Amino acid sequence: MTRLTGDEAHNPRLKPIRPRLAASLILTRGSGDGLEVLMGRRSSRHVFMPNKYVFPGGRVDRADATAPLAADLDARPLSLMRQCLPERRARAAAVAAVRETAEETGLLIARPGQHHTRHPHWRPFLRDGYLPDLSGLRVITRAITPPGRKRRFDTWFFTADATVLADDRPAKPSDELEDVHWVSFRDAKSLDLPFITHFVLDELLRVQPPAPQPVRCFREKHGKMLVEEI
Fold first, then answer.
1. What is the pLDDT of residue 47?
2. Is the pTM of this model over 0.70?
3. Which pLDDT score is estimated for 1?
4. 61 vs 7, 78, 91, 123, CA distance in Å?
5. What is the Cα–Cα distance from 216 to 227, expressed in whole angstroms?
6. What is the pLDDT of residue 7?
7. How far is 190 from 209, CA to CA, in rounded Å?
8. What is the SS3 assignment for 71?
9. What is d(CA 73, CA 117) in angstroms, rounded to the nearest whole number?
10. For 46-65, how does the pLDDT look when each residue is reduced to its tens digit (9 = 90+)?
């Protein structure tokens, strides 16, 4: 098991911090031995996990709860998330995954549509005549940062096939995520990854069709780190 360091390491002197709701999206293309995932390297300017390779993602913002949508989250992932979150918060997490992907990679998970909102979050979509589309997202796993960390997140990890993308524009780096590119599953495991990203990659393979597998959560319970079904 990878040893946790820096912001990932336990510090019992820190005051308890309530986890912030967050979301991440693993875009995939291909299947089997040809499975690829979209990843990027966090900027060295980040305090949290600098220079680590991760998937697009971030905290859920208030505006995510009122996003203009072309299509809602499918009933199955929404039902699963409602076991842990109010429906409004569950949907906002899925929206955040799509929004962060657009901000960090330039890729739009969307369908054609128009809306009159002026919120800056949705300009990349509305500028090109699109609205966010949640219908192709599935839940892979959930991970809650243990107590005693400087930053804590309750992160929901979604996946979607590249066919959900609005067009064929290439992914591009951003201030948040550098070196954005498609990488084979095998090569992804050899990158400089946070511990939790290793776990999520393993869960991604575990829940791949055709045999459906229960979605699991990685969290601390009674002082022990557990992986248990949601």
1. 63
2. yes
3. 28
4. 22, 19, 12, 16
5. 6
6. 43
7. 24
8. strand
9. 20
10. 666 678 999 999 999 999 99
Q: What is the DSSP string of 121-160?
A: GGHHHHTTTEEEB-TT-EEEEEEEPPTTSSS-EEEEEEEE
- Amino acid present at 99: R
Dihedral sign computed on CA atoms, order 195, 25, 40, 49:
negative
Structure tokens, 122? 């949705």
Instruction: Collect contacts of 181-190 with beta carbons under 8 A, ≥24 apart.
Output: 181/38, 181/39, 181/40, 182/29, 182/36, 182/37, 182/38, 183/36, 183/37, 183/38, 183/39, 184/34, 184/35, 184/36, 185/35, 185/36, 185/37, 188/37, 188/39, 188/53
224's enclosing H/E stretch is strand 224-229
Tens digits of residue pLDDT in 6-56: 444 445 555 678 899 999 999 999 988 899 999 999 876 766 667 899 999
Give every residue of the chain whose pLDDT is below 50, as ranges.
Answer: 1-10
Residues 76/83, Cβ–Cβ less than 8 Å: no
DSSP single-letter state for residue 52: -
Q: What domains are defined for the chain?
A: 6-229 (3.90.79.10)
